[in-house]
Fold this sequence. Notes:
Layout: H1 5-25, H2 54-64, H3 70-87, H4 111-129, H5 138-148, H6 166-175, H7 178-185
Helix pairs in contact: 2-3, 4-5
Amino acid sequence: MTDDPRATGRREFLKAAGLLAAAAACGPAADRAPAHGAGGQPAAATPPRAGFDEALLASLGATVLPASLGAGGQRAAIAAFVAWCDGYEPVAEEMHGYGYADVRYLPPDPVPAWRAQLDGLNVLAERVHHARFTSLELAQRQAIIALALRDSTGEGMPSPLGAGHIAVALLAHWSASPEAWNRALGVVVSPETCRPLADALRKPLPVARA
């Protein structure tokens, strides 16, 4: 007896959907740069284009990132943010989410605005304290950032792409990282990373505290 072509088509669709779901479980988050270009071909390597002032970005990170990370942890968080910015593909097609079938696209490149905002912190520091942002004390840098964000709206921590200012984007990027989740929960769960099935029933290990 010949299978109903419609049933065969449904089976093939479900099989493909299952494979895609398994791949997505180990893949990057929806607002990160896709690993492949059009047609499934590997994306061409592109040179870094963020172009942030490194000293300014380091001072910003030391101001908004948790002090408990230490200088090394803050540098790592900043490097991860810059790498994410360099790899971001503007207006790329999003992976289809559950519950909608329309094609959706990521926002345009936010880096030029963030770069201007970072430079703006330095200009604001010059206006208020007659000194560069990098030379200010921590409390003064915090006050400058609060002044720059005084007209910001919204509640809770947005995604990096939903952040209206680079200060929020940097903190939001770290807050979404596996390390931030581990620190918040006090145990190593490392979301958005692939773990062996054998670890599924094991109690998560506590986060090592320095």
